[in-house]
Amino acid sequence: MSTAPKAAPARVDQFFTVTEARFDRWRSLLQSARLWEAAASRQPSEKEKHQTSTSASFQELRQWEDFFAYPGQVLLATLGERIGSGYAVATARLAQSISTALMTHSYRSSLADWEGEEQPAISLSDRVPGTGEEVHYRPYFEVLIVSPSSSAKWVDLAQELRKLRRPQDKFIYEPVFVSNFEDAVLGAILNGSIESVVIYEGISFASSHYSPVLREFLTAHLGASNIDKDTGQYALALAQGLKQLRPELDIFFLSDREPEKLAGDARGACIRRVFYQVEEPLELHLSILDGIADRYITPYFDNLQKYAQRPIGTFHALPVARGKSIFKSNWIRDMGQFYGLNLFLAESSATTGGLDSLLEPTGNIKVAQEKAARAFGADHVFFVTNGTSTSNKMVEQALLAPGDIMLVDRNCHKSHHYGAVIAGAFPLYVEAYPLTQYSMYGAVPLRTIKKALLDLKTEGKLDRARLLVLTNCTFDGHIYNVERVMEECLAIKPDLVFLWDEAWFGFARWSPFYRRRTAMGAAAILELKFKDPAYHQAYREQEKKLGSNPSDKALLETRLLANPDKVRLRVYQTNSTHKSMSCLRQGSMVLVKDQDYHTVEEQFHEAIFTHASTSPNLQIIASLDVARRQMELEGYELVNRAIQLALDVRREVNSHPLVSKYFRVLGADEMIPAEFRNSGFVDYLTTGMNWAKVVAALREDEFALDVTRLTLVCGSAGFDGNQFKNMLAADYDIQLNKTSRNSVLLQTNINNTRSDIAQLIKVLVEISQGIEKKLADGGSAAQQAFAARVKSLMTDVPNLPNFTCFVSRFRENSSSMTSEGDMRSAFFAAYREKQCEHIKLFSPEIDKRLKDGPELVSANFVIPYPPGFPIMVPGQVIDAETIGFMRKLDVKEIHGYGAALGLKLLNPAFLKAEKPPSPEVANTPKTAKRKSAAAD
Fold first, then answer.
1. Both ends of the chain: CA-CA distance in Å?
2. Closest CA to 570 of 604, 612, 614, 541
3. If DSSP codes are grouped into helix, strand and coil, which group holds residue 463?
4. Which helix (DSSP H) or strand (DSSP E) does residue 726 occupy?
């Protein structure tokens, strides 16, 4: 294979554009070949020019094709020979055949695609090569084989593997051969169809491909610069590196000496099976298929399909089961026609017949949850069928007791606030940094969290600080440095429990860049850190440097290490599987990696009994199972595509000469203040950005931006967020979710395609053209009105209100430096009408009381959409800033507030009345156990 000439540095987004760029290169070759074919009757110079162009296009794509099974070495050699021999017609025909097969994926099932354009179409799904036996459709994947053998032998080796295929095989695969460490990593990065890797001993390290992007990635992400190249033992390091890069891959190791020792080596934990390389090729083949089957099996979904085919007599309370009440109906038959028969055949309210119980699973739901735990890197996973709102409340009820202190981001999802009410925990709100210009909040700075913990320590309340709750990523795409947050918080309180609400971020497990910033990914890193002798030594050195009684200032300004001998790693993650994976609405999961889970297991199950329906939707359970299967088998490729599409939108919108006059997608530099980007990272598409900087930023910066969350500023086009959202939906059939005063939030996910992006750009162009025409036709009056509208949206924005404090009645000590409060008591106080009052928002009474008292105290949650977080919570003192923000709101949807009645407040008479005795929180079973453990 020829080495590609040096070229301009690759853009950062080219990592994610591999599949689409590959298709584009083949289409470019086909176009050149057609022009060459059309020039056959023209002047020789014209023919030669097009032949040269075709040859150049072929060489451009040729450097990438070694990492894909199709079209393979034989067809590529044939195509190269045709180009070199001047066969324009034959070149165009073969290029057309290959390009079509790649675009339609027909090569995955058609033998003809592998043998050239003249072959008859024989389906790989219908016949096994060499046997003529018919088989059912079989999913296709590719196996990366890293072998030191000569490339001249690879065609024969591939043929030998094909001979091992059997009619009963459920899957079919093709091999991809490479000979060295770097090419193996490059193949795993570029080819999302690779599901298994076979590594021989004796491979070399360096690649012959020119790939500065790969070198940056290897050095920055896998630590390839630290690999001992002198020993020549790269195979095991490769296995470990690939498992770090793509944890879902099955890795098989072929050793030529003492395989039993490697099998017992702790470093080989990443290897599925070790073989002695000169024996048992059939066993290797079967092991590869078995590994895929392990991921492909969906225990609950598979059983539900079987259940639906059985003749079931139903004498339980679910008339739609089996569908007879629908399909025999004179009036609702159309419902059955719309949804289809299988939906109703697969319905039941029974847990017998292999359907299992979601509340206490012992069968296929239990196995499905165990597979999900493996996929997400958790110790335990629990399926939830009524959304992550419920998942959050389950975790909080299980972990919190009345009087516990829960540190929580004030602008988190409302379920966390209600979780505090249910548990009787005292929320201590920590504030995120504001993005006032766009009427949204970012994320909570680590310094703010550390200060809250240190203040609790000063006040003697650190033992009550039980749980830290943060949203990762936030609705607008702010991603925490999860590893650092947990590590530094554990340095202050070694047994602090963490709940990461990753409702929007479940997909991140399948991105090698985002994974370390997920709860489970960071927990895995910390787990290894705390076992590392070097970390123990680093901790002792820091402890010595800080002294026995360091000041809060020193602790706030130091990058703290946790005491590995005392730390308890207790991490919970919730994700809205339906938001980023192929799962039905309300499908959610709770992920657990808690080394002390056994101490809360009973109450966790009690929380499940409290919140989970006794009649869960079977289709949601099945879709959770299937979503896991899909992500384990193709999540890497799908997530890369979603990221690529987001980068496409950013680039096209911000560089379009017309669209960028009125719209822009905010970059990391506009969403994250520079003080939280210490690496110097600006944005993914900034000129000169490379992978070394990107990986360093994702590893070290306090916050990062999820590129799939696209904040599109529309205020500069004269639209407020709601107005623009409604226009897109009504006039262009484009749906989106969140809005702010002057922006809308777009999101790419695994469902989006390039056609979706093209439609969005076309619509933005059309809207921009309409603005231009309106301004031109309307003259100076229209232009002045437009400028005033833009100014009101982009400049005259209200300040975002911060949390004030809980009124003294709901605080244990009103002079405390920490502001936690008994929100549960405040919440239920509002259930007595005589303890409440209503005052109209614009009433002079509001202004009078703000000035002279008595205090205005909220009786309930008030949540305007946008911005979608509580600006008032039960028991909160309302200040002039909050009232001013409310009065400037121009949104129609405000939960907890009705304009006709006004603000619902706790009345002054109730607040002055004698306070009832505090609950004896110290005597609850949970807190008693905790205090005992703390004393020990």
1. 66
2. 604
3. helix
4. helix 721-732
600: which residues sit within 8 A by CB, 6+ positions away?
A: 398, 399, 594
Strands 172-178 and 140-146: parallel
3 state SS of 708: coil
Least confident of 132-141, 392-401, 649-658: 132-141
Tell me the angle at which helices 88-104 and 72-85 cross, rounded to the nearest 10 degrees.
150
Report the interhelical angle of 754-794 vs 721-732 (nearest 10°).
150
Torsion 300-302-303-308 (CA) sign: positive
CB 519 within 8 A of CB 479: no
Say if residues 299 and 364 touch (Cβ distance below 8 Å).
Answer: yes
Q: Please give the residue that has the higher pLDDT: either 258 or 211.
A: 258
Backbone phi, then psi, for 375, in 5-degree steps? -65, -40
423, 535, 527: which is closest to 483 by C-alpha?
527
Q: Is the pLDDT of residue 221 over 70?
A: no
Quick check: 558 and 546 in contact, CB under 8 A?
A: yes
How many residues are present in the chain?
936
Q: Are strands 380-384 and 588-594 parallel, antiparallel or unpaired?
A: antiparallel
∠ CA 409-410-411 to the nearest 5 degrees?
A: 95
Say yes or no to pLDDT of 699 above 70.
Answer: yes
Secondary structure (3-state) at 229: coil
pLDDT band, residue 151 (cuts 50/70/90): confident
Position 262 scores a pLDDT of 76
Rounded Cα distance between 47 and 40, Å, is: 6
Is the Cβ–Cβ distance between 182 and 205 less than 8 Å? yes
pLDDT for position 126: 47
For 499-519, the pLDDT digits (tens) are 999 999 999 999 999 999 999
Nearest to 236 by CA among 209, 210, 257, 207: 257
- Give me the phi and psi of 504, to 5 degrees please: -95, 0
Specify the DSSP class assigned to residue 663.
-
Ramachandran angles phi, psi of 746, nearest 5°: -100, 155
H or E element in which residue 141 lies: strand 140-146
Gap between the Cα atoms of 178 and 197, Å rounded: 11
For 180-207, the pLDDT digits (tens) are: 998 999 899 989 999 999 999 889 988 8
- Show the tokens assigned to 183: 């090419």
Q: Does residue 122 come out as left (phi exceeding 0), alpha (psi in the -120 to 50 range) or beta? A: beta
| Summary mean pLDDT of the chain | 90
> Which amino acid is residue 253, in one-letter code?
F
497-501 and 570-575 beta bridge pairing: parallel
Tokens of 297: 């099996």
* Cα–Cα distance, 432 to 494 (Å, whole number): 24
- Residue where the block lists tokens 């799904």: 125
Question: 820-830, pLDDT tens digit by residue?
Answer: 999 999 999 99
HSE at residue 504, side-chain half, CA atoms within 13 A, is 23
CA-to-CA dists, residue 80 to 54, 87, 155, 888, angstroms: 10, 10, 17, 68
H or E segment at 172? strand 172-178
Per-residue pLDDT at 756 exceeds 60: yes
Handedness of CA 34, 35, 37, 38 (dihedral sign): positive
Two tokens at 851?
A: 């000035």
What was the pLDDT predicted at 176?
97
Instruction: Output the CA torsion 27→31→32→38 (10° steps).
Output: 160
Task: Name beta bridge partners: 664.
Answer: 713
CB-based contact 206:233 (threshold 8 Å): no
Cross-strand partners of 898: 902
Q: Can you give the pLDDT at residue 118? A: 52
β-partners of residue 837 are 905
CA–CA separation, 608 vs 806, rounded Å?
A: 31
**63, 156, 161 from 152: Cα distances, Å:** 18, 8, 16
d(CA 309, CA 140): 27
Q: What DSSP state is assigned to residue 363?
A: S
